Amino acid sequence: MKKVSRRTFNTTLAKGIGATALATHLPLACGMGQNNQKKRLGIALVGLGSYSTYQLAPALQDTQHCHLAGIVTGTPAKETRWANRYNIPKGNIYNYDNFDTIADNTDIDVVYVVLPNFMHAEFSIRAAQAGKHVICEKPMAMNVAECDAIIEACKEAGVKLGMGYRLHSEPYTQEVKRFVREKTFGDVLYVSADAAYRSRGYPDQWRLKKELSGGGALMNMGVYSIQSAIYATGENPIAVSAQEFSTAPEYFKDTDETITAQFEFASGAVANIMTSHNLNANNLFATCTNGWFELRPANNYGPLAGKSSRGDITFQHESQQKLQMDDFAKHILYGDPNLAPGEMGRRDMVIVEAVYKSIAEGGKKEALNFSSDYGFGR
Ligand code: NAD
Hints:
Largest sheet: 9 strands, mixed
Distance between the termini: 17 Å
Bound molecules: nicotinamide-adenine-dinucleotide
Order of helices and strands: HHEHEHEEHEHEHEHHEEEEEEEHHE
Number of helices: 11
Strand order of the largest sheet: 14-13-12-11-7-10-9-8-15
CATH superfamily of the largest domain: Dihydrodipicolinate Reductase, domain 2
Structural class: alpha/beta
Radius of gyration: 21 Å
Mean pLDDT: 91
Helix content: 25-40%
Number of strands: 15
Shape: globular
């Protein structure tokens, strides 16, 4: 049985979930009042922008362990549209002001925060305080201090916290993690990880405003290249040096356009990452003592594609978001591993801050010191 911390255990009991369920591994869904044993969890999406509209809501029509139960929006016109399209009862529709009353709604077990980055911490914390499990989109928050506040609020409330890191549920990425874990190609020596897209023609978007996004390419696609470097080496970095390139400062006025960074790992492996809002790149390459592997593309919605020194890597495509949300629901219901815990999102924010610090200091090497692998080896 999955180890349950005393604090979580006590809170769980306080919420009325019997010890019998814990002991027998029956479906568990804490934080939802009366209805303690559900087979499919209700998810409420907070923020109905493009990711919720085109990826998460469609994926939730196919999930087996969770479903779209509610919405939270600041745009009244979306309420009717979404209610009609997805058959959402009026009582499961919230706005940003009355959101906290979601605490009383037993249809909703999980709140999925899909808002601009500056709103992640506020809504993740409010969701936890309402007794709901939380999925927080990437990047986890604006800075490490906010990540800490989210983690603390979830611990305090005894609810689960997962990141919207869809790739951890995706088979090509899981295969990369297996290569590393089983040393299929020997020791990883070098990783190159690029995650970038050309984002021009929308100068007013929130992603280009530091106050709303916390940063540019690094806070957006950069998180994928950081993640890639880590799961393709199977280690957290021990040091990072970084550089920023600005070729279109008239457009990227307020946030970083292109960043490269080099990671050092305790094993001696090295990684180079690149992220940008001004060019397209989407790949992961690793060379090892006994061969190589690559994913190209490596981080879009799929299908991904892979090759190695032993031949093609091929998996059937499924919605990454469907797999991700089902995995998180299984974590809650059955104690399956949390593939992307909040601590992993925090770790990435520590790295983001170190990259920005290195750039501010002219590329100086910043030491990093993580005490856990945050489950990236699974
Ligand atoms: P979006 O701009 O399409 O949607 C943002 C939503 O927030 C809109 O519904 C908007 O009305 C609402 N909003 C509320 N206050 C706002 C404000 N002050 N400014 C702007 N919008 C405001 O963004 P998106 O692409 O849906 O991204 C939302 C979050 O999801 C971001 O954190 C992003 O990084 C993340 N995301 C993750 C993935 C992934 O693959 N995991 C993909 C896309 C986006």
